Amino acid sequence: MLTGPALDTRLRPFEAIKAVRRLLNNPDDTSQVFIIFRAMRGRSAQRTFRRFASSTTGAAILRDRRSLLAALENSAALAQLPEGSVGRAYADFMAGQNLSADGLVQASQSWEQDTVPPEVSLFRERMRDAHDLNHVLTGYGRDPLGEICLLAFMYAHTGNLGMAMIVVMGLTRVPAAARPAVIEAWRNGRKASWFPGQDYEALLSRPLTVARRELSINDPVRYRAVKPQIDGGMTA
Description:
Order of helices and strands: HHHHHHHHHHHHHHHH
Shape: globular
Strand content: under 5%
Largest sheet: none
Number of helices: 16
Radius of gyration: 17 Å
Distance between the termini: 43 Å
Helix content: 55-70%
């Protein structure tokens, strides 16, 4: 299903390095993130999808052709959720950042040019659309350090070398005092339940504190401690 010419598994590190540099110089250019992921995914995408498809939750999502984006775009339904729930926290996060759930769709077009089976396309879209929800679940913000920490956390779940490359190169742009927060994020990711296999739609109605406990998501202590000290201190 995932082999053959439709899925390019070659590693292209020079292409990725150029894209990382463009991203670090312009963090708002999120299209570079998908270029990096594509260039450095290797066979990690195959392994991640197969694990997802073989799980009970993943098989049900693929069978039902479930769209996470549709759930995240349903602002009326999110507004009806209780205070303190994952969905309400997500809605507040998106409103506070002036973001929309479909904001990453256009940026990801370079990722989605490959001809792949529809179930693979659905899974890719799900992973893309979960990004801001993962910010909420993990407690990492959209500031530069928070983005690096989230990628370090998620690298433990996907094995995409592009994530590791952004983290390593991004460490050169953060103060030395912030680097333990990135290491902590990677360790937290290794301890947490496997994010790609989660029923995100069901999590939306769960209390955020309960969801974090059930998914074994540790509090980002070092990130919270150092963030006020370095806000505005990232180097260009």
